[in-house]
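User: Earlier you gave me the apo prediction for this protein. Now I'd like the version with pyridoxal-5'-phosphate bound, so I can compare the two side by side. Same sequence as before, with the ligand SMILES added.
Assistant: Got it. Here's the input I'm using:
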Amino acid sequence: MFRKTRLFTPGPTPLLPAAQFAMAAADMHHRTPEFRALFQRVLGQLKIFVGTRSDVLLLACSGTGAMEASVSNLTSPGDRVLVLTAGKFGERWVDLTKAFGCQVDVVKAPYGETFDLGAVRAALKPETRAVYVQATETSTAVRHDVEAIAKLLKQAAPETLLVVDGITGLGTTHFDVDAWGIDVLIGGSQKAVMIPPGLAYLSVSDRAWAAMETAQNPRYYFDLRKERKNAAKGESAYTPSVALIAGLGAALDYIAGQAGGDLEKGRMVLVDNAQTNAAATRAGLVALGFTLFAPTAPAAAATAVAVPEGMSSDDVVKTLKTRFATVIANGQGEMKGKIFRIAHLGFFDYLDTIALIGAMEHIARDTLKLPVDYGQGVAAAQKVYAEAVTQS
Ligand SMILES: *Cc1c(COP(=O)(O)O)cnc(C)c1O
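And here is the structure of the complex with pyridoxal-5'-phosphate:
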């Protein structure tokens, strides 16, 4: 049989062909009117994609670079910050804020769960300068309730900044950035926007700009004020990732094209698509006898699935690759071997979901020896899809 390579990983995600063509054609110099026009157009599109009236900046780095920028630009050594962590990416916030000399309070939830809001409220102090959290914790496929956390901050700590790693949340979660009061929302190129790794983007609120005036931590490459000044002229402070920016523009055009050219509506379609594919995947795999790793707060970015006792997720990951040339993600860190993760963010559609669940039926039968009938998982997924399309 032919084996067609397919990516189902939560970053990098499958590439959009139109974006690949745009990248290949982007041989322009970055200090030219051509580039300025492209850059300004893409920055404008990004504001709509993120859904904010604030500035959105683009940085040439992976997502972690923008996470670092949101620590170095907003804090001073000795500042008290609160990190909400429930997985590997939350732990990255702990490491980053410590690296910049912050006094770090931590609210933890076990892997596979989200936080108790009461614990968050109890951990807030009047001097807490910023709260750092993920919208979706990709390592466990959990969605955190950013709206509830934002609401809590407005009541209990109105001066505290809210910084959200939306690197897999953007394009899979509906946000109302300005109304909720998210001060920084971070995205990355290799996730829902369907282009290769190497670009990060972030929205920055007026409050966050004001906080930068007093923040003392060192920054040079990731100096957001410098980027903002240059962006106003249609340029970036240093050599931008020209090809990726052209690809991003094409991807945002494609997303707009899903709703007749309206990018805001296209963003909703992208999010709803991820949510429906995630729900269908959960239903399909549960019907095959798998256990969801994050049943109470599942993300639409990815689905994490626990393998039955005595089995290893390594076998699922390896067999999907050898039999079907399909790549899914294993667990990270201590979750390796225990869970596998299937992505829904970006360029996936319902037919991709059905194909993957079909392949999982073979693996459940042949590799894991589960008592599964062909069609059992697919039928459950089809029902979710059918219900979703009659509702919309
Ligand atoms: C992918 C990802 C990141 C960024 O990782 P990079 O490798 O630096 O791009 C950060 N947070 C979350 C939740 C992610 O999924």
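For your comparison, keep in mind: The chain has two domains: 6-12+268-391, 17-257.
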